[in-house]
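Moderator note: this is an archived Q&A kept for reference. The question asked for a predicted structure of one protein chain; the sequence and the answer are reproduced below.
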Amino acid sequence: QVQLVESGGGLVQPGGSLRLSCTASGFIFSINSLAWYRQAQGKEREWIGWIRGDGKTGYGEFVKGRFTISRDDAKNTVFLQMNSLKPEDTAVYYCNWRDPQGRNFWGQGTQVTVSS
């Protein structure tokens, strides 16, 4: 079955960096697009960006060059590198895969807290 497992979250000071990982199984990773979302407490889930099987990426407006998505197909893993973190980046971060039938699969999420 499909499984997405995020890791790498934690507490970081404003201006700091974190790299999140999402390891996937249950589908052919290398040809598929994956996405990152986040959800802050009391807010709707927000799209961060995606990466296609060919490595092309797209990002939400708010990212503004601070976040970068990459992938390692040999490890079935997608990464979210986050730099210049702000307190408003505090959220649970989720990895997402949508199958050809349009069903969404999510990981359990990883908490990122940006605070001094």
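Archived answer notes: The mean pLDDT is 95.
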